[in-house]
């Protein structure tokens, strides 16, 4: 968070600046942490989306097949939050670096929040590896193939209006600063876990009391005396997304299917052209890479988690920018750097020798 970044080691920064100014080919790998200062929850951090609920059930084709309404609620919430957010100085600084260095400076982002494009990041130098929340496509991508880019409508449908009372509880931050999903989202996830996992399902799913800051609905006829402490498994709560396919975005072309967010779910392959473009950067016949910036990522999701190592093999020195030093991977003393702090504060400082002061690029768009 602003003001909490410890002073950087001037010798390390000078060494980094020296390499930066001589670098011709720079690859940046971005994760959710770069957007944290824009107010967007990270997946794994203390206030992350994955805390307390298994989004692995949601960001998957199986989750969407089982209950598209539940998954659409999750993405309606993500779209709403991303539309409210603004790019921060880290997004702008990287866009400016790309403009100054030119086409040999390429950014690979795992983020689907659209903040790098909104910061004016040169389009040809940004690969959105996991897609974008604001592109939708028909679930029948082969037979119909309808794609809707730049759809910023919010809500997409009345049923997906996240400002409705109970839906607004999604992502509510409670005193321990962990977002609480709405009862309907958690109940639906728990029910789906039970369905998908069958008898393997242990009822560790979030208990009703996990929603203490929120009014957890009770199953009809099972009202508890006021103040009763007994937590009940979420699957008891007969709530669900309650949405039907008619409530969800419809394909205007084939008029037979619903639309889905054009994001890459776990178990799905990256878009072929995107994956090819990324792999080409590290190919044997590609030019050497001078510098790789790894910004705000826990480097746990593949194939992106492997790109820094590929850059190393092409000669790059690696600079990790992260609030957690422990998330820097495969460091080589004397070769690589770890700058610990908020990317929104660190990146403008670290890139200054090439991009100049923020008065020249802050809020600049291409
Ligand atoms: C695929 C889109 C093959 C949706 C996402 C090899 C080994 C093991 C597993 C696999 C493997 N290969 C494939 C897999 C499976 C899987 C995978 O990697 N699983 C993991 C969990 C082990 N990978 C896949 O399924 C991929 N597909 O490989 O396809 C294939 C081939 C052919 C045919 C079929 C299949 C697809 C993965 C894409 C998943 N989609 N997102 C959505 O967003 O809803 S993943 C999603 O989570 C994000 O996109 C991102 O990638 C990931 C979260 O990671 P981070 O961005 O790093 O965020 P996180 O919260 O974890 O960390 C934040 C970091 O920021 C922290 O380090 C924190 O300290 C730091 N931070 C916080 N605040 C700040 C900060 N830093 C600086 N400043 C701050 N202020």
TrEMBL record:
Zn(2+) binds at residues 138, 144, 251, 254. It comes from Apiospora hydei. InterPro entries: DHS-like_NAD/FAD-binding_dom, NAD-dep_sirtuin_deacylases, Sirtuin, Sirtuin_cat_small_dom_sf, Ssirtuin_cat_dom. Keywords: Metal-binding, NAD, Transferase, Zinc. Pfam families: SIR2. The active site is at 130 (proton acceptor). This is Deacetylase sirtuin-type domain-containing protein. PROSITE patterns: SIRTUIN. PANTHER family: NAD-DEPENDENT PROTEIN DEACYLASE SIRTUIN-5, MITOCHONDRIAL-RELATED. Belongs to the sirtuin family. Class I subfamily. Residues 6-362 form the Deacetylase sirtuin-type domain.
